[in-house]
Prior knowledge:
Layout: E1 2-8, E2 13-19, H1 22-25, H2 28-42, E3 52-57, E4 63-68, E5 73-74, H3 75-82, H4 87-106, E6 109-110, E7 119-123, E8 131-135, E9 142-143, H5 165-168, H6 176-192
Antiparallel strand pairs: 1-2, 2-4, 3-4, 5-7, 6-9, 7-8
Amino acid sequence: GTVFLAEHTMLGRRAALKVLRPEFSANQEMVTRFFNEARAASAIKSPGIVEIYDFGYHVDRSAYIVMELLEGEPLTQRLRRFRCLPLPQALTIGRQIASALAPAHRAGIVHRDLKPDNIYLVPDGETVSGERVKLLDFGIAKLAEAGPNRTATSALMGTPKYMSPEQARGAGSVDEKSDVYSLGVMLFELLAGQPPFFGQ
């Protein structure tokens, strides 16, 4: 999809507008997955999860999500600049990711694609470190109440080098432990400058 900077004309509130490309908006499975992101993020009450304002279809039938506009940088960019992070900073980021995941897991939501690209670091004067982690892209999240037909058991979805072994096998019983594994891989990368394994 494409992300635009948007503004509510009546409220003057800025937001990020994520629009699914027309060829994907015509694919019901893709639209379901896209809206799954909005539903999953909306179901979690945490300052560490990007806030969803609205979602639906534009007049041209393109699917869209309106979400909180984040100003900061993705964790990927931070790693690109510094390669690895000091232990206190890495642990703070790891703790905040875990704190954002906890309410998601309590709600029966497994992210299934945790990686530095989906972690955003935003300024926040209320935190000791001066910044807050925001989890993004719940597009392939598994909602417990959605049942096994949300994603086919054999479908391999995620990013290989951050996937848990059971997720890489395409197991249908992927649960919150898979997110914990991915968090461990990211912590390793934050401290060592590279992930423990590489995948294609």
